[in-house]
Amino acid sequence: MRDLPAALSGAVDRGEIEAWFQPQVDVGDGGTVGAEALCRWRHPEWGLLLPGEFIGVAEDTGAIEGIGRFMAEECFAALAEWTAVDRPIDVSVNVSPVQLLGPLFTDWLAERLERVNLRRSTLTIEVTEARPLENVPALVHRLDDLRRAGLGIAIDDFGVGQSSMRQLKRLHGTELKIDRSLVTDLSAAGTELLRRVVDAAHELGIRVVAEGVETIQHLQRIRDLGCDRAQGFLLGRPLTRSDFTRRLVGAVP
Ligand code: C2E
Ligand code: MG
Ligand code: MG
Asked: What's the CATH number for 4-248?
């Protein structure tokens, strides 16, 4: 049987955790304007594991601290590399609410931001609403600190779980990521709901990213509704950093 907690401890140090990057495109002109960092665990026996299989365990055991730092460092490296090849784009990183509530990660990040050469608005922290958020006042406080430091704040998976426009306002996000379940629901009611969400976000001055765009029909509709950016298998699957760089410079893998 797999002992995930034991195997996960030290996985970062053993070089088993990897950052992959999924493109985000401008809905208007189709250009690649951003990338979301997604973690993968390459276990020597079990192969490549997706975050759904281990992030929960990492949150419970504390291994998420090392993973979170590693992913942030990979984003710094990617931002530097893509600026160096003259393709400066934005990068987003998922940060577990568990990590945002403890001071360790945010203190570490604030310190790292002082040292890395980075245009801060190019890095966005994604916080998911898929699970009920605990201690929202403390979370708001931490997110405010990060926003004041110049980073973007994305509310991820909007449309599942507890999501509401009220919550969005409360968290002071700069970006709203609409969950695949809303993006792929092409019914009239689904379209009306999506329209209301996009309009409300824009009224608040928040950028809207549609997730899980898999077909031309999904893309056409989110374009008609005025979404700013799109992400999904139609536009590009997650890639390793070197493959992503090849895509950016025109040698599509
Ligand atoms: P997410 O942040 O909402 O990331 C998008 C997920 O949807 C990714 O799954 C991506 O591969 C998948 N996806 C993208 N486009 C499509 C599409 O067109 N169709 C379908 N069916 N799926 C699509 P992935 O990489 O398995 O990540 C799952 C979740 O794990 C992420 O959801 C995020 O909540 C979490 N996660 C990923 N990396 C990290 C990390 O470094 N730290 C933390 N705390 N959580 C992470
Ligand atoms: Mg995300
Ligand atoms: Mg999401």
From this structure: 3.20.20.450
